[in-house]
């Protein structure tokens, strides 16, 4: 199983596999997890009440950080989409409004895990240095 260095990059990969392609299952739902734990079924309310506004809820971070993704699934990733409206971000931080750097990708070292990646949509959210890394690897940065 692959080990990611950048948690936020992993979230973008999870977005593609879990919420777009639906090949990484089951789909994670923070509301369901909180309800199972007997806490609430309202993630937004939970985040507000526990001082977690604009932060990743620990239960979501733990789930996604430990989530194993097979090499086979990673090899199937040809496109990624970086967008503040990604479902994975809502599952992580239900109060997040996309106006800060909470989910910014700091490193593209994990590109080696995606041998067939050809395109990254929303690459304007990456700094020039990281966009250059994509270009150097022949990955279209839209």
How would you explain this protein's 3D organization?
Strand 2, helix 7 and strand 3 form a beta-alpha-beta unit. It is built from seven helices and three strands, in the order αααααβαβαβ. The model has no long low-confidence stretch (mean pLDDT 95). The protein is mainly α. It is 40% helix and 6% strand. The longest helix has 14 residues. InterPro entries: DUF6892. It comes from Streptomyces fimbriatus. This is DUF6892 domain-containing protein.
The gist of it:
Residues 1-139 form the DUF6892 domain. This protein has 142 residues and is mostly helical. Helices cover 40% and strands 6% of the residues.
Distance between the termini: 29 Å
Compute the CA-based radius of gyration.
15 Å
Helix/sheet category: mainly alpha
Number of beta-strand segments: 3
Mean pLDDT over all positions: 95
Major beta sheet summary: 3 strands, parallel
Strand content bin: 5-15%
Outline the low-pLDDT stretches: none
Lateral strand order in the biggest sheet:
1-2-3
Estimate the global geometry from the Cα principal axes. Answer: globular
Number of helices: 7
User: Helix amount, in percent?
Assistant: 40-55%
* Strand and helix order: HHHHHEHEHE
InterPro entries: DUF6892
Pfam families: DUF6892
Organism: Streptomyces fimbriatus
Protein name: DUF6892 domain-containing protein
Features:
142 residues, mainly alpha, three-stranded parallel beta sheet, 7 helices, 3 strands, DUF6892, DUF6892 domain-containing protein
What's the layout of helices and strands?
Blueprint: H1 7-20, H2 30-36, H3 43-49, H4 58-66, H5 71-75, E1 79-81, H6 87-92, E2 119-121, H7 128-136, E3 140-141
Parallel strand pairs: 1-2, 2-3
Pfam families: DUF6892 (PF21832)
Protein name: DUF6892 domain-containing protein
Organism: Streptomyces fimbriatus
């Amino acid at each position: 199983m692959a080990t990611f260095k950048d948690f936020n990059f992993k979230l973008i990969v999870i977005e593609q596999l879990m919420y777009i392609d639906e090949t990484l299952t089951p789909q994670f739902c923070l509301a369901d997890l909180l309800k199972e734990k007997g806490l609430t079924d309202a993630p937004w309310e939970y985040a507000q009440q526990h001082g977690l506004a604009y932060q990743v809820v620990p239960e979501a971070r733990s789930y996604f950080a430990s989530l194993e993704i097979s090499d086979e699934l990673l090899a199937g990733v040809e496109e990624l989409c970086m967008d503040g409206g990604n479902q994975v971000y809502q599952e992580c931080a239900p109060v997040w409004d996309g106006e800060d750097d909470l989910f910014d990708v700091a490193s593209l070292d994990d590109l080696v895990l995606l041998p067939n990646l050809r395109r990254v949509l929303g690459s304007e959210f990456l700094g020039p240095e990281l966009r250059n890394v994509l270009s150097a690897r022949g990955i279209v940065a839209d």
